[in-house]
Design a protein that fits this description.
The protein has 361 residues and is α+β, with helices and mostly antiparallel strands. It has 11 helices and 14 strands. It has one domain: Penicillin V Acylase, Chain A. Strand 6 and strand 7 form a beta hairpin.
């Protein structure tokens, strides 16, 4: 199995970092955009909707400019470096919000387990469209307030990762009936935490302040603490580990104040099945000792367990219907590093992991 590409991004200003990313990832951005452009149109047509992608991207960028203008400067740099129009980069970073406008289903997307410590360990499956299996990479980023490492899609500033202060972020999309475009994109919220937060408290404060228009849960992980912050247009809420120190997240709200707006679980209740299976698996056990144990914990294909945590795309099928686990990520926040396996946890082995450490600023 091919290991993921590692992209090293540097620059003393947001614009410089963006230009560097754009130059390094020019081919990947073009490839990714071609697929997303088709995906936006395909899913909108399936739901009888018409969406103006450049306009939605610009609205999201304006909301971001009001909240964290340096992120827009960085996206402008990406567009310059990749020689693409700015709305292309803005749309890639707002892909979750634009897909919400298109009415996209999210079957099979992402399962996370974290056990608080010290040391706190955990990780996740990242499930997404099989057609985008080559549209992501591992990255290290320096030059801002915090150096960080993680995985992201081409052109998107960040997704899952850990920074040089030992603050980690795991990422699960949620669905709320008010979701749409026009707020700060959730991927840029993750980028702000990784690039700015020097502590658990700072990360939670940044998340509580984020004016999003689509829903997600970002699980913040440090060496001795963890919490999930559920973000939605209706507000945010913090979900703490259970009595044994475990956090299990799939793709539905857990905070009582937000469950009334639940959309994803009502449309696709398999998220509850995955949560049930993983909650049962972790009960009474200690934290996974390394990526191998995490992969074993996340390997479930239905059968007796009744839920598909490790997701495999069917043969054939149209764009938008072929879901697969594109990456498995194990966090070691005490070591400020993460290990990445390309593909689902069932295919992971000692030689399949790529390890990357958050660089110092």
């Amino acid at each position: 199995m091919n290991r993921p590409e590692i992209t090293v991004i540097t620059g003393d200003t947001p614009k410089q970092r963006g230009r560097h990313r754009g130059r390094l990832a020019r081919a990947g951005i073009a490839r990714s955009w071609a697929l997303y452009d088709r995906l936006f149109a395909t899913l909108a047509a399936q739901h009888g909707r018409t969406i103006d992608v450049p306009a939605l991207a610009e609205r999201s960028a304006e909301a971001t400019r009001a909240w964290a203008p340096a992120l827009v400067e960085e996206m402008e740099g990406v567009a310059e470096g990749a020689a693409v129009p700015f709305p292309v980069v803005a749309a890639l970073n707002a892909r979750t919000e634009i897909l919400a406008e298109a009415g996209a289903p999210r079957t099979g997307e992402c399962s996370t387990v974290v056990r608080t410590g010290p040391p706190t360990t955990g990780g996740q499956c990242w499930d997404w469209h099989e057609e985008l299996a080559d549209a992501w990479h591992v990255q290290t980023v320096t030059g801002g307030a915090r150096g960080f490492a993680g995985i992201t899609e081409y052109g998107i500033l960040a997704k899952i990762g850990v920074n040089d202060a030992g603050v980690g972020v795991l990422f699960n999309i949620l669905g709320h009936h008010d979701d749409g475009a026009g707020g700060v994109p959730v991927h840029l919220v993750a980028r702000q935490v990784l690039g700015e937060a020097g502590s658990f408290e700072e990360a939670l404060a940044l998340l509580a302040d984020a004016p999003v228009s689509a829903s997600t849960v970002l699980t913040v992980v440090t060496a001795d603490r963890a919490a999930s912050v559920e973000l939605s247009p209706a507000g945010s809420a913090v979900v703490h580990p259970d009595a044994e120190g475990w956090l299990v997240r799939t793709n539905h709200f857990l905070a009582p104040g937000l469950t009334g707006g639940e959309l994803r679980g009502r449309r696709e209740p398999e998220t509850y099945d995955r949560h049930r299976v993983l909650s049962r698996r972790v009960r009474g056990r200690t934290a996974p000792a390394g990526p191998g144990e995490l992969a074993a914990l996340l390997t479930a294909h239905g059968g007796d367990d009744g839920a598909q945590v490790c997701c495999h795309a069917p043969d054939g099928g149209e764009l938008g219907t072929r879901w697969a686990t594109l990456a498995t990520v194990a966090l070691d926040v005490a070591g400020r590093r993460l290990a990445v396996h390309r593909g689902g946890p069932c295919g992971a082995g000692p030689a399949t992991w790529t390890s990357v450490t958050a660089p110092a600023r």
